[in-house]
Amino acid sequence: MRICLVTDTWEPEINGVVRTLKNTREILGAWGHDVTVIHPDMFPWVRVPFYPDVRMALTWSDSLAEPLSQADCVHLATEGPLGLAARQWLLRNRRPFTSSYHTDLPAYLWKYLLIPPRFTYRLLRFFHSRSRKVLVSTASLAWRLAKWGFRNLARWGRGVDTKLFRPKDGPRQPRQRPLAIYVGRVAVEKNIEAFLTLDRPVDKLVVGDGPQRPELQRRFPNIPFLGAKHGADLAALYGEADVLVFPSRTDTFGIVMLEALACGTPVAAYPVPGPLDVLGQNREIGALDEDLGKAVDHCLERANRAACRAFALEHSWEKCTEQFLNHLVPASKPRSRLRRFFR
Questions:
Q1: Structural domains of the chain ordered from first start
Q2: What does the pLDDT look like over 8-29, one tens digit per residue?
């Protein structure tokens, strides 16, 4: 089957959307499907002024006609310029499609531009209104979107590569103090300062890059900022850590939590959607508390690294990709009005 994914975020950007789409494409390809990704590098683009790592494609709907017309199924992964252009072409040519809601744009635009969430939700609801299925990662996100009037919601979970992300072979390095790490984008909406200001006797480490990194490095010169890490290097850092601190209050999921758990590292987070959906009330694999320090204390004192690994083994990318595939709808060409008249 020929599947077309349309996304406004792609490599070299590093985020959960890119990671999800890359893993999905790879597995679909291994299953024999022909997957085309329409992304910003295929067109002229500009950087988002308040978020320079993000690129916006400069294009129009007809420029997408060839890949869209050849696809058996089309999925719009993001609500940016490419998603809008593809949506326009698909509607004009009466082609069905699915879409997904990955990012809490209302919260981000309120934080960056003070745009009231009700306006952003209205625009997002319009974008997804003609989608046959709107795929969301968690039950709490589906509940929230339903309250805002979204329809045709369906679950598309997230997974982890448990062969790459696994406990470290042999003993971990001896340390005088426990190691707490943050992994992810270094940006305002990630609330990293809550991690950096934790008053606990732990060594802290930040893994990731983003627009807020220079500012935070100046303010917290004693905390190492390693930049973005990938693959085995990232897995090794997870494996050495005693706890992953996930301070975001706006992430819709948080794949890094599953990656850390796969390496046997428990997670400390706030009791908000995302962490609640991933960790639930399982106190063996992490802790959720409005006092982030108390959550860290629990992970260091009571979490079970073997239980963390066992939990992650239940969340494979293959299972998530099967979910995605089952939600797709055929985008076959509609018959002409003349043919329908003589039918």
A1: 2-159+319-342 (3.40.50.2000), 179-315 (3.40.50.2000)
A2: 999 988 888 999 999 999 999 9
pLDDT band, very low/low/confident/very high, at 343 (cuts 50, 70, 90): very low
Residue 174's contacts (CB-CB under 8 Å, 6 or more residues apart) are: none
What tens digit of pLDDT does each residue of 284-325 get?
999 999 999 999 999 999 999 999 999 999 998 999 999 999
Q: Which residue's structure tokens are 């999925």? A: 75
Q: What would the two tokens of residue 199 be?
A: 């008053």
CB atoms within 10 A of CB 170: 6
| Bridge partner residues of 207 (DSSP) | 183
The 8 Å CB, 24+ separation contacts for 297-304 are 297/200, 298/268, 299/242, 299/243, 299/266, 299/267, 299/268, 300/178, 300/202, 300/242, 300/243, 303/243, 303/266, 304/266
Of residues 28, 126, 44, the one with CA closest to residue 82 = 44
How many whole angstroms separate alpha carbon 58 and alpha carbon 82? 8
Taking a C-beta distance cutoff of 8 angstroms, is the pair 183, 165 a contact? no
What residue type is assigned to position 42 of the chain?
A: M
Across 2-19, b (16+ Cβ under 10 Å) vs e yields: ebbbbbbbbeebbbbbbb
Mean pLDDT of the chain: 92
- For the record, the structure tokens of 299 come out as 């992970």
pLDDT in the model for residue 50: 66
Report pLDDT digits (tens) over 72-103.
Answer: 999 999 999 999 999 999 999 999 999 999 98
| pLDDT at residue 228 tops 60 | yes
175 burial via Cβ count (<10 Å: 0-12, 13-18, 19+): exposed
